[in-house]
Structures are given as structure tokens and as C-alpha cells.
Amino acid sequence: MKKWLFASVSIAVIVLAIFMFSDKTKANDTANLNIGTMGAYEINSDLFTLHKINKKNMGSYDALLITKDYINDSSQNELRTELNKSKLPLLFVDFEDESALAFLTTELPLKDIEMVGKGEIQMVYTLPNGEHATFALFDQDESSLQKLDKAINLVQKVSSLEEWEEKSVLEFSQDE
Question: pTM, whole model, 2 decimals?
Fold first, then answer.
């Protein structure tokens, strides 16, 4: 009787350990990111939870998502000033032919910043030393959105553009 009880408990512990430490379980246990959105946009992924916000409540999110339409309907200079104060990664969407970085770092209106092939979603993050780390996606398949999730988490852990470039190359070259 004791042997059966010991064997049952041992098997239960092994099964539980396999479940807890399997890669599949780890991938599903990651917390989704809370993204504050300025403008109407949908991301079809369990990695992100979107929250509609405005310039006055850009507070405690993992990143801010700003649509091209929102920028065009806003006072661009005021919005640029507010976004440059943000300590969060900024995700610019529907920007296929405009540069989010140029919008943030120049006085030019969005309509004058045409640069073909910049990416459907462009991330810009101001590092502690004032440099700008960037990342871009050209589509929204699950693999691309997983890379965006990793980029949002990684960029907030680096302190310089050189460190971002080294770590992001290592991170994203492993995905290919």
C-alpha cells in the first residue's frame, strides 16, 4: 500500500513539474501588455490589451499607440510636445509612408514627412540618455506581434542606443 501511495505521489510531482516548466506553458503565462490608444485601432492578438485614452491620461500603460488619423485631427505641435515627455514606448500605426521618428524630432507636420516603406507599426522610445531606439513591423501576423511584444519589453531595459542595437539584434536573430 505504501509503495502505491509513494508511486502515485511521485508520478503526480513529475507531471506537475513537466507542466510548470514546459515552454508551451511559459509562452502562455506571459502577461499581456496594456496599451493606451489614441485613435481607433485594433490588434488581433492576446499579447495586448488596448485602452482608449486621451492626452490627459497617458499614465500607467506599457506603451502608447497613436494612429495617423489621431495625429491629423490633433494639434500636432501640442501632441508632439506631450509625446516627447512620455517615458513609454510609442507605437505609431498606419504610418506606412511617414516616419514616426521624424514626426517626433522635427517641427514638420505629418503630411510633410513622407518616407516610403517605414513600417505599418513603428515604435519609438526615448532612452534615458536622450537617444531614440526604433523598431518597425510591416504586417500584423502573430510572429510579428510577438516580436513587437518582445521589443516593447526589451527597449525599456536598455540605457543606450548601442545597447538596444546589440540586444535587439541578438533577440530577433534568434526568432528567425
Answer: 0.76
